[in-house]
Write a structure and sequence with these properties.
Elements: H1 3-50, H2 55-79, E1 81-83, H3 86-102, H4 107-121, E2 125-127, H5 131-146, H6 153-163, E3 169-174, H7 181-194, E4 199-204, H8 211-222, E5 225-227, H9 235-249, E6 253-258, H10 266-279, E7 283-289, H11 294-307, E8 311-315, H12 324-333, E9 337-341, E10 349-351, H13 354-360
Parallel strand pairs: 3-6, 3-7, 4-5, 4-6, 7-8, 8-9
Antiparallel strand pairs: 1-2, 9-10
Helix pairs in contact: 1-2, 1-3, 1-5, 3-4, 4-5, 7-8, 9-10, 11-12
The structure holds guanosine-5'-triphosphate and magnesium ion.
Magnesium ion (MG) is lined by residues 181-182, 205, 211, 257.
Length: 363
């Protein structure tokens, strides 16, 4: 997971900081050498004034000069620090920008990273050997700010069903075709069962062939009921019935599986609005594929504009090497990623942990 990003960005920082240091060291060396030359010249001039011509004395003095020179370089090596100016920063950033684009990070997120790095780096005193560290530190800080801190789903559920004593808690899942909605619902049922919640599923994908059977297969493995109608039936009506069923049986949570729809298909996007109006979900989750990178960001944006999503689950993060969607999607939508799908089994659902993700990205 995220290996591409980790490797590429990591080695980029190493290479670019070495380049900067080499250049800075050369410049400083040049300055020091000039200073030494000047001092030596002054000494020679003084000597000439005194007309000291003894070769032995000159040799002795040269030795002294050498000693002094060594001492000065040592001091320089210990004390050397550097300030990056705007031009140098732009040069480094253009290389980083290329890698971020290659990693499928959205342009708006890249601009944010640039501003954050700029604030941290330009003009600040950086000690020798610390440029890489400084760049990495600034990058980690920028990524930390980009990633929205997730809320606790269990807390939200308990606020309704324990504090307000209202059941059920309704969660609708939306996303494009094949993004992992149905699988994610099954994984989430497993997760919620472990937390001692009871669940029922609404087969509101009445559109795709075999979708109801697929959901029923999961349901029978997990020991939960599916509320279903015929194919072609109104998905909102199915959700409505599932909620009524949960109310009558005091079931904690209804999970509504919906048909995959392209964010460009207007009629299907409008149908989603009807499901939301009828089911009045407590939570609308957008399920996107991490592997499609920037496309997932665009989809999430459109779904959010249409129905106002509350949170995101990114599936297939186990296959994603580039991390672009994970980095940008919550920044663009301002909605948190709650879970990452990391495989096809029920256990392969990982609560989104910012620190763990940052570590996975190499920071
Ligand atoms: N590797 C991996 N595969 C996943 C993950 N989540 C889902 N899949 C696979 O992705 C494929 C599509 O998953 P579904 O759950 O059917 O997707 P969907 O969004 O319900 O699809 P439609 O109902 O057709 O829109 C299946 O083969 C899943 O096993 C994941 O986190 N990692
Ligand atoms: Mg499905």
């Amino acid at each position: 997971m995220f290996n591409f990003f980790k490797k590429k960005i990591g080695s980029f920082f190493k290479k670019s900081s070495k380049e900067v240091e080499k250049k800075a060291e050369k410049e400083a060396e040049k300055e020091i050498k000039e200073e030494i030359k000047k001092e030596a010249k002054e000494k020679v001039e003084k000597k000439e004034e005194k007309k000291e011509t003894k070769k032995e004395e000159i040799r002795e003095e040269k030795k002294e000069e050498e000693k002094e020179k060594k001492g000065l370089f040592k001091k320089f090596r210990e004390k050397f620090s550097y300030k990056l100016n705007e031009d140098e920063f732009e040069k480094i950033f253009s290389g980083l920008e290329e890698l971020l684009i290659e990693s499928n990070v959205a342009m708006e997120a890249i601009d944010f990273i640039k501003d954050e790095l700029k604030k941290e780096i330009i003009g600040s005193e950086i000690k020798k050997g610390k440029i890489k560290e400084k760049l990495e530190e600034a990058m980690a800080k920028a990524l930390d700010e980009l990633l929205v801190e997730p809320f606790d789903l269990i807390e939200r559920i308990n606020e309704k069903i324990k504090k307000k004593k209202e059941k059920p808690y309704v969660i609708c899942f939306f996303g494009i075709n094949g993004s992992g909605k149905t699988t994610t619902i099954a994984k989430l049922v497993k997760y919620l069962q472990k937390k001692k919640f009871s669940c029922v599923l609404a087969a509101s994908d009445t559109f795709r062939a075999a979708s109801i059977e697929q959901l029923e297969k999961h349901a029978s493995k997990l020991g939960v009921k599916v509320i279903k109608h015929q194919y072609g039936a109104d998905p909102a009506a199915v959700a409505y019935d599932a909620i009524a069923h949960a109310k009558s049986k005091a079931i904690d949570i209804v999970l509504v599986d919906t048909a995959g729809r392209m964010h460009t298909q207007n009629n299907l996007m409008n149908e989603m609005g009807k499901i939301v109006r009828v089911a009045k979900p407590d939570m609308k989750i957008f399920v996107g594929e991490a592997i499609v990178g920037n496309d997932a960001v665009e989809q999430a944006k459109t779904f959010n504009e249409k129905i106002g999503i509350d949170a995101i689950i990114l599936s297939k993060a186990d296959i994603d090497e580039k991390a672009g969607a994970t980095i940008s999607v919550s920044y663009i939508t301002k909605k948190p990623i709650l879970f990452l799908g990391i495989g096809q089994e029920y256990k392969d659902l990982e609560a989104f942990d910012k620190r763990k993700v940052l570590k996975g990205l190499g920071f």
